[in-house]
Specification:
The chain is mainly β. The protein contains 2 helices and 24 strands. It is 9% helix and 57% strand. A hairpin with a 5-residue loop joins strand 7 and strand 8. It is rod-shaped, with a radius of gyration of 41 Å.
């Protein structure tokens, strides 16, 4: 190699090194100073197009709100992520462009997840509202007939409910403050059967007919014993049976706005008695005294007027 050839080779290597370094920096975005000022792309719409010219996705502004979407190979939408005001919304579509899944977050009502049928009608809803989580499983076609589960932390209650086709809660099973309860209603909520068990009050059942105006209550208290009550709610009249370890009696009474009249009869120990009370707080008592002989007392406003035998 001659001296000229050697110098030429050095020049080529130097130029190649400089060019290579320049290209490398350019591909990496330039120097540190240049990297901090990355280029900005401003557009109202950016579309992703495949080789066949079909739109497969994009980022766009719709009615002043941002939206990201993905489409299948036919260019039909399958997924959509958008922001509606302050609420982000995610939607999945089936091949027929029917909405089948959605996930939404609203600052007021909380997060909501929905699964929909082939007609786009809700079939399942899962939300977290102010009281707590709630799951609703709906009848086909999004009808109001539903099975739902809720937990309301504000009143310490968990509940399972069944609605009829009109949306009325026919059956509910709940636990509130450690008291399990099951309730059955007719479709107009006029009639009700309720069963609950309380550690403090014991098991209790009630039957209510608000149209006829009657109610029946049964209870077994762990201290005061069993209790049976029938109520005429329209006229405020009561008939009840009660029993404890010392007494067994029945009673009937009417309360204001009607005259307060009471009738009681039963056993205290092994001694029978009958007691009558009228509106003036007068009382007639007929029973067996401590001596085992009949006893009659007439009382008015708490004062004994007559006692027989004296």
């Amino acid at each position: 190699m001659t001296k000229k050839q050697f110098l030429a080779s050095l020049l080529v290597l130097a130029v190649s090194g400089l060019a290579g370094g320049f290209i490398s920096d350019w591909l990496r975005g330039g120097s540190a100073e240049a990297t901090s000022a990355a280029p900005t792309i401003k557009a109202g719409e950016i579309l992703l197009v495949d080789k066949a010219g079909k739109t497969r996705g994009g980022l766009q502004m719709v009615s002043g709100e941002p939206r990201i979407f993905l489409s299948n190979k036919e260019g039909k939408p399958r997924a959509n992520l958008s922001l509606k005001g302050e609420s982000p919304d995610l939607v999945f579509y089936d091949k027929n462009q029917v909405k089948r899944f959605s996930l939404n977050l609203d600052d007021k009502t909380g997060p909501l997840l929905q699964m929909l049928d082939k007609n786009g009608k809700p079939g399942l809803k899962l939300r977290f509202w102010k009281g707590g989580p709630a799951l609703t499983i709906m009848h086909k076609g999004g009808k109001k007939r539903a099975l739902y589960l809720t937990v309301d932390q504000r009143i310490n209650r968990s509940l399972i409910g069944l609605n009829d086709i009109g949306g009325t809660n026919n059956i509910s099973l709940s636990v509130q403050d450690d008291i399990p309860r099951i309730t059955l209603h007719d479709n107009k909520l006029d009639r009700e059967i309720m069963l609950e068990v309380s550690d403090e009050l014991g098991p209790l059942t009630s039957l209510t007919d608000s149209i006829a105006g009657y109610m029946v209550v049964n209870q077994i208290h762990h201290i005061s014993g069993p209790y049976y009550k029938m109520v005429d709610t329209k006229h405020d009249r009561w008939l009840y049976l009660k029993m404890d370890r010392e007494r067994a009696f029945m009673g009937a009474s009417a309360k204001p706005p009607h005259n307060k009249v009471g009738y009681f009869s039963g056993l205290v120990g092994d001694k029978p008695f009958i007691s009558l009370e009228d509106p003036s707080k007068s009382d007639i008592y007929v029973g067996m005294g401590d001596s085992g002989k009949p006893k009659i007392e007439l009382t008015q406003e708490g004062k004994k007027l007559v006692t027989l035998p004296k």
